[in-house]
């Protein structure tokens, strides 16, 4: 009587862990929340002037690029970075931070943290630049939505290029894009104070960078 050899089946592959948020995204969200918390507490403590002061010091003022007098040295350059950390209230903050977390989590599947941070920063600068060109006398403009639109557009561009190369159906993605655009148009009509020019500038920059990186095969 011969023994049959035992055949051990290979263990099924472990499920891939869900991608976490890059540390810089967590830092941006934490900083934005801390700033808004400070402004809310200042108002409750009887210092309502704290918010207007923050707008004067850190908001984006197009006039400063047209010869306006800055409040401190370097303000015309620094405001390209600082305006994205300020928000008009808890609802504005929540919408932007939730969108940032959701989009960054998905984009992190396709590119490294440093590359994504570069796209975020470039989109924020491009958003402010287009706002200044289209509304040269406006201000203040605040919020992270221009940069968020940038990484969202980068995600769309990356997914479109990768999907085309792998011949995957893209209908679901384009429906999501159409929904995002429709919501943005609806919000712009409902809230005229929304700086759609910044959204557009950030989205164009993000799409161009995300698409170029995907075509070059860079992460």
Order of helices and strands: HHHHHHHH
Task: Please identify the structural class as seen in this structure.
Answer: mainly alpha
| CATH level-4 homologous superfamily | Rhomboid-like
Quaternary status: single chain
The major β-sheet equals:
none
Radius of gyration: 22 Å
CATH architecture: Up-down Bundle
Identify the CATH class. Mainly Alpha
The number of helical runs is: 8
Low-confidence stretches: none
Query: What's the count of strands?
Result: 0
Total separate domains? 1
Helix content: 55-70%
Principal-axis shape equals globular
Percent strand equals under 5%
- In CATH terms, what is the fold-level topology? Rhomboid-like fold
Mean of all residue-level pLDDT scores: 85
Task: Give the distance, in angstroms, between the N- and C-terminal Cα atoms.
Answer: 59 Å
Transmembrane segments: 24-46, 78-103, 110-134, 140-162, 174-194, 200-217
Keywords: Cell inner membrane, Cell membrane, Hydrolase, Membrane, Protease, Transmembrane, Transmembrane helix
GO molecular function, one term: peptidase activity
Protein name: Rhomboid family intramembrane serine protease
Structure in words:
Keywords: Cell inner membrane, Cell membrane, Hydrolase, Membrane, Protease, Transmembrane, Transmembrane helix. Residues 80-212 form the Peptidase S54 rhomboid domain. InterPro entries: Peptidase_S54_rhomboid_dom, Rhomboid-like_sf. It contains eight helices and no strands. It has helices at residues 23-44, 50-58, 75-82, 90-107, 113-134, 145-165, 171-190, 196-216. The longest helix has 22 residues, at 23-44.
């Amino acid at each position: 009587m011969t023994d049959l050899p035992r055949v051990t089946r290979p263990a099924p592959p472990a499920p891939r862990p869900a991608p976490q948020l890059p540390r810089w995204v967590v830092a941006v969200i934490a900083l934005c929340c801390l700033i808004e918390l400070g402004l809310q507490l200042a108002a409750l403590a009887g210092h309502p002037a704290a918010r207007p002061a923050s707008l004067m010091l850190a908001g984006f003022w197009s006039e400063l690029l047209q010869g306006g007098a800055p409040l401190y040295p370097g303000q015309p350059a620094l405001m390209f970075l600082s305006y994205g950390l300020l928000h008009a209230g808890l609802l504005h903050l929540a919408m932007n931070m939730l969108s940032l977390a959701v989009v960054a989590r998905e984009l992190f599947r396709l590119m490294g943290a440093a590359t994504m941070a570069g796209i975020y920063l470039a989109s924020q600068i491009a958003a402010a630049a287009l706002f200044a060109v289209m509304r040269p006398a406006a201000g203040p403009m605040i919020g992270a939505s221009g940069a968020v639109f940038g990484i969202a557009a980068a995600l769309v561009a990356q997914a479109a290029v990768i999907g085309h190369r792998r011949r995957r159906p893209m209908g679901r993605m384009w429906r999501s894009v159409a929904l995002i655009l429709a919501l943005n148009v609806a919000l712009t009509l409902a809230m005229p104070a929304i700086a759609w020019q910044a959204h557009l500038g950030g989205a164009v920059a993000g799409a161009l960078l995300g698409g170029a990186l995907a075509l070059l095969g860079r992460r």
